[in-house]
Every structure is written in structure tokens, then in C-alpha cells.
Amino acid sequence: MQRVSLLWTLAYSAARVGVGIHDAFFNAAAGFFLASYGLPNWAIGFLANERSFLGSLLQPVAGALSDRIRTPTGRRKPFLLLAAPVVLGFLILMGRPDTWLMVLIFILGPLFVGLAVTAYEVLLPDSVVPEQRGTVNGVARAMGFVGGMGLLLVAFRFWQQRPEAVFLLVALSLAAGFLLTGLAIREPTPPAEPSSEPGTRNPEPETRNYLRGLLALREATKYVASYFLFWFGIGGITPFITRFGAEELGIPQNETFLLLLAVFVTTLLAAAPAGWLGDRHGKKLVTSWGLLAFALLIVVGSQVQSKEQALLVLALAGFAQAVPTVLAYPLFTELVPSRRMGELTGFSAMLWSLAQPLGATAFGALADVTGTLRTVLLGGGLALLASWLVLQTVRTAPVGSADLPAAAARDV
Fold this sequence. Notes:
Radius of gyration: 21 Å
Structural class: mainly alpha
CATH topology: Growth Hormone, Chain: A
CATH architecture: Up-down Bundle
Largest sheet: none
Strand content: under 5%
Mean pLDDT: 82
Shape: globular
CATH superfamily: MFS general substrate transporter like domains
């Protein structure tokens, strides 16, 4: 790993632009599209999520494979090709296919994106020194939000008359983003495999020993639990924001995209500064303040009564959201040993990805029971507060200490 240039950062961020456009589609337009098929809220919540329930179970496998394979192009970059089937899926959705095919695409698309992103994100700790990761990830996330803003503007202009333009934008951006990153980024030489001494193998069953090794990383385990609650709340909220505006506030469908645009604009403005502040003043400290503010704003937002109030609260929430979003992965990389970064990234991503469709399904069912989408925002805000409480129990070590031999990492 090394200090990287602005050009490297921009090349790395290209794939994040495509992912940002993909995620913005699921957050903003997917709910309306699925509702047009007559699906209930719980099913819309499950499907209108950029994270795949099924794919999350495979992310540790993808991460572990990317730690171990060796190809002429590198360990991580072959997984970027998994974005190709997603491009095809969005081209099919342009023609409004039958329900069974639509549901299949909504299930498989996020699966492939999740596996590609697992390997893509590990390029960051592979290539960038710890003290620069927050800043680089902040720039990448900012560019992702720029892409998401572009999707929202296109949806605002064309969704009601030419929705196929929105699907075409997602397909083209994913193809171009992952292709540019794959061609422009050169992976560093992977570290040598650690040697094993004869007779030192733990006699316990492999699975039990593996799980014990994971749990021995106590601070990382608590951190993953905190962010499970974070993504449970976020996953429960995002598929319903635009429909909240339409059904609870009476805003026309195309104008509801402006609600998410307000979030994206302020998150964009705060993304790079959040990464810089985390590198300078401590990632956990900065994350804690941002997460607390975000949780309280979402709770308040559940009670807004007008479009103007919603725009104000969501704009403020975007500033706060940028902090835990940008610093989540850089902080995680400082809590785990680098030689298993891909595998542990996949394992944590599995849990965080499971949280999002679970939250969306649970809060969607809650909306079905209560008859209002306000309970979705209230439940999400409470989940974020619980995430903040768990985060306070995490102890962080000096930068780079996760790579030192330690009892906590010995069996992992």
C-alpha cells in the first residue's frame, strides 16, 4: 500500500459513480415501479433494496476467494465483471417484463452488484495507506452521490413520461464505471501467504475454530453489530422516502425525487470533509457525532407535515448521514488484520447487507399493519439510535495496530 494521487482516487471512484446511480434507482424509483405491479409494502421493501438478501450470504465467499486467487489482472478485479449481468437486467426492465421476470431481475441484480462491490471495496485497503483511506473513500462516496443526483434529476424529468430513460442510465453508468476502474487501477502485489508449521493445527473442528477466531476480534465484532443496526435502519427507510412524500404529504410522484435530491446534495457536500475529519480527529469520534445527529433528525422527520419541512429535515440529515457512511469501511479496516481483509470485509458486508432487506421488509410490514409510512421513519430512527449506543462500546486502537500480531487476531 502507498499514498495515492488524485488521479488514482478518481479512477477508483468511477465504479462508485455507477454504484451510486444503481443505488439511487433502488432508493427513489424502484418503490413506484414495484407498486405499479400491485405488490404489498412488505414485498416492495424486500425487493426495492440495493442490497441482496441472497447475495449477502455469498459475500464472505467472494471476499475469501478474492484473498486467495491469483490472475494476470489481480485478485479483486475479476469480480468487477459481475456487474455485466446487472447491465443486461436493467436493459430488460426497460420493456416492463412480466412479473416473474421482473422479480427475478430485482433479486439477482443486487446479488451480482453486491459481490462485485465486495471485491471493489477491498482495493482501498490493498492500495491506500490507513491515514489516507478516509479521504479517498470520502471522494469516492462524493462521486457516487454525484451519480445518484444525476439519476434523481433524470427521474424528475422523465419518470412519468419516459421511464425507460432511467433504466438506460443505470445500465450505461454501471458498465462504464466498472470498466473504467478495472482498466485504470493496477492492483498491488499481494502479500505472501503465511506459512504454517507442522503440528500447530488446532484440533478443534474447523468451523468452530473459525467462528471463535472471528469473535476473538471483539472490537470489530461490536463494530459490525453497531453497523448492522445502522443498515437495518437505513435499509428500512430508503425504499419508502419517495412514497412517503407521495402518500403522506401529497407530493406529485415526480416531485418526490427532490426529497432524495436534497439528501444527496448535502451528503455530497459533506462526504469529502467527513473523510478528512475522520483521518485528522479520529474516525470513531467523528462517526459518533454524525450518527447521533442523523438518528435524531430521522425521528423528527417522521412527523413532518409539509414538503418544505421534509426538504429541510432531509437536507440536514444528508450532512449527518455523510459521516457514518464515509467512515464506516475505513474504520473497519483499522479493527481487523490486513492479511484477511477481503474475507472479513465479505463477512461484515454479509451481515450489513442482510440488515437492509430485513429492515425494509420489517418496516414495510409495519406500514401495512399501521396504515401509515410514518412508522417506517420512526422505526428507522430508533434503529439508528441503537446503533449509536453500541458504537460507544467499541474501543479503537492506533492506526496500523490491526496488522500487528495480537492474541485477538492469532486464530483468525
